[in-house]
Write a sequence for this structure.
């Protein structure tokens, strides 16, 4: 069975492959199939965007496709940057998390709660079946970046559970507790129970 990971984000692909690597499936990414199109993400929810990506790329590739949409939701910002996390501020990851730190500079420590959320959509173009699952990872936004690992907002997101930032965790640590890890564990179950017989 082939499973296409509908992403070009190297950090995200690495995390997904690490969790699914012992699953009996050949994992491909967009670079492997030469897919260069940029799929628009017009939905206002993570679920909507994940479904759009999975269905669009699944239909065009003809492959069982896994897509996710993830983002950071900051409590005091009413869930922003949310679905716009990757494009909230133009530039790179560092530009985005520095902009968030600046926006929260006067917010007291007890009001800096946040969570990462991932929604994964799995789509089979052969029978049009689509299923979604979700993972949430709670923590808070620090006042300065810490750690060298990860990507996105990882250096400023402090996990209550691990007592360190995402960027201070090894990939193994992060994959044991993160939002994407939680969603992928459910995705593994869904793949095994719902999609194996379809292919």
């Amino acid at each position: 069975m082939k499973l296409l990971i509908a992403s070009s984000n190297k950090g995200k692909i690495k995390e997904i492959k690490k969790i699914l690597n012992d699953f009996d499936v050949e994992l491909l990414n967009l670079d492997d199939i030469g897919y260069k199109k940029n799929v628009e993400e017009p939905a206002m929810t993570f679920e909507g965007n994940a479904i759009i990506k999975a269905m669009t790329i699944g239909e065009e590739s003809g492959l069982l496709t896994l897509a996710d949409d993830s983002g950071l939701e900051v409590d005091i910002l009413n869930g922003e940057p949310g679905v716009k996390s990757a494009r909230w501020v133009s530039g790179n990851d560092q530009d985005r998390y520095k902009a968030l730190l600046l926006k929260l500079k006067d917010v007291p420590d007890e009001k800096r709660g946040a969570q990462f959320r991932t929604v994964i959509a799995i789509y089979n173009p052969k029978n049009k079946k689509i299923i979604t699952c979700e993972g949430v990872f709670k923590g808070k936004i620090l006042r300065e970046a810490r750690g060298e690992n990860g990507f996105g907002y990882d250096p400023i997101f402090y996990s209550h559970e691990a007592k360190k930032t995402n960027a201070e965790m090894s990939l193994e640590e992060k994959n044991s507790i993160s939002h994407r890890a939680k969603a992928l564990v459910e995705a593994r179950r869904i793949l095994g129970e719902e999609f194996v017989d379809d292919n």
User: Anything to note?
Assistant: The longest helix spans residues 179-195. The beta strands are 2-5, 26-29, 65-74, 113-124, 129-141, 157-159, 164-165.
